[in-house]
């Protein structure tokens, strides 16, 4: 089932680049965190449960995805 994103409040990081190479995240929806490419605002949206998103952000903060 696709969540209703009509009330999504999209936010980008204050560290995002001026060229739009970043993602926007909506955390205001019940039971879902939505992520999209800021260059393609009508394109596909990835959705996660809040727990999945928190786990991902925790991994980012720990440096688990550094190359």
Q: Going across the major beta sheet, what is the strand order?
A: 1-2-3-4
Can you count the beta strands?
Answer: 4
Number of helices: 1
Strand content: 25-35%
- How much helicity do the residues have? 10-25%
Mean pLDDT over the full residue set: 90
> Structural class, please?
alpha+beta
- Any idea how many domains? 1
Q: C-alpha Rg, in Å?
A: 13 Å
Spans of 5+ residues with little confidence (pLDDT < 50)? Answer: none
Pattern of helices and strands: EEEEH
Distance between the termini: 34 Å
Task: Describe what this molecule looks like in 3D.
The chain is α+β, with helices and mostly antiparallel strands and 67 residues long. It has one domain. It is built from one helix and four strands, in the order ββββα. It has one helix at residues 50-62; strands at 11-12, 23-29, 32-37, 45-48. The protein has a four-stranded antiparallel β-sheet. Strand 3 (32-37) and strand 4 (45-48) form a beta hairpin. The longest helix has 13 residues, at 50-62. The radius of gyration is 13 Å and the shape is globular.
């Amino acid at each position: 089932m696709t969540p209703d994103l009509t009330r999504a409040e999209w936010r980008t990081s204050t560290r995002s680049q001026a060229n739009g190479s970043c993602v926007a995240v909506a955390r205001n929806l019940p039971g879902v965190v939505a992520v999209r490419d800021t260059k393609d605002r009508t394109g596909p949206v990835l959705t996660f449960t809040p727990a999945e998103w928190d786990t991902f952000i925790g991994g980012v903060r720990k440096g688990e995805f550094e190359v």
